[in-house]
Design goal:
This protein has 286 residues and is an alpha/beta fold. It is built from six helices and 17 strands. The chain has an eight-stranded mixed beta sheet. The protein is globular.
Length: 286
């Protein structure tokens, strides 16, 4: 399991379906379906957090605040700065376990002499975008949610990367890829973090297990003659990292050689020494 290294983020404890986290100086309690163990909640911060997200029986939920909670606040990962904002459905705008991928992609980009063009699909608030920009790449950042793209721009500005070569695109990722193929545009690297389930603008149903292969197949048509890497991330429960690795092996490695790696991502739990599984990742690279 690959584990990221943070200073401004810490998973303090995890028990009985909840995680106790420090995001900088702010302590939050959030639900997590992976935490099926029930260990004693001895840390006093369980009773002294700034806010706790409570799920509703009818769906969704709400934040219950015990202390003044800022609308947003910055945390840093190495040379990157992210604005954290408690959102509906328990999210904060950042998946800290992805930092291990940011480091890998940054090192691959920094190791190539010629310019690297990166396509980041389902790009959310821009963690991978910022890491690639800071490493010297040109990035096309695509997400269907206008608010997420605006948030990513805020993060880029906070990180001093606003003037770097980036295209901010609000669009359906599959339709954008299809248009890029027709335009003849090519990329040296592709990153994707597709949702487990969703609906398109015309009611189309998206299920990751059913659509992932054809999406990767499309994206392979966008790769340059000398691609650098291809990353797939997933939070779909039950989808093994090896399955995504096999897709990259059959579609990318078969054409370009190189290496395929796949693993779980995790966050170390300070209180217990356990590691919380936080999704799967697969990487092809030369």
């Amino acid at each position: 399991m690959r584990i990221s290294e943070w200073q401004d983020y810490k998973l303090i404890d995890a028990s009985a379906g909840e995680r106790l986290e420090a995001w900088g100086d702010v302590v939050l309690i959030r639900p997590d379906p992976q935490i099926i163990w029930n260990t004693p909640k001895k840390n006093p911060l369980w009773e002294n957090a700034h806010a706790r997200y409570l799920r509703s029986e009818t769906g969704g939920g709400r934040w219950e605040t015990a202390k003044r909670l800022p609308d947003s606040w910055p945390i840093r990962y190495k040379n990157l700065t992210f604005l954290i904002k408690p959102m509906g459905f328990k999210h904060t705008g950042l998946f800290p376990e992805q930092a291990t991928n940011w480091d890998l992609m940054s090192s691959l980009i920094a190791g190539r002499e010629q310019p690297v063009k990166v396509l980041n699909l389902f790009a959310y608030t821009g963690g991978a975008t910022l890491a690639c920009l800071a490493a010297g790449a040109q990035v096309t950042h695509v997400d269907a949610a206008k608010g997420m793209v605006a948030w990513a721009k805020e993060n880029a500005a906070a990180s001093g990367l606003a003037e770097k070569p980036v295209r901010w695109i609000v669009d359906d990722c599959v339709k954008f890829v299809e248009r890029e193929i027709r335009r003849g545009n090519r990329y040296d690297a592709v990153i994707m973090d597709p949702p487990s389930y969703g609906r398109g603008p015309n009611g189309e149903v998206w299920k990751l297990e059913e659509r992932l292969f054809e999406l990767v197949e499309l994206c392979v048509q966008l790769l340059s003659d000398t691609p650098l890497f291809f990353v797939i991330n997933s939070y779909t429960t039950g989808l093994a990292p090896s399955c995504m690795g096999y897709i990259l092996g059959s579609l990318v490695q078969k054409s370009f050689g190189g290496t395929v790696e796949f693993d779980e991502l995790g966050l170390p739990v300070a209180e217990s020494g356990l590691v919380l599984p936080c999704g799967s990742t697969a990487l092809w690279h030369l």
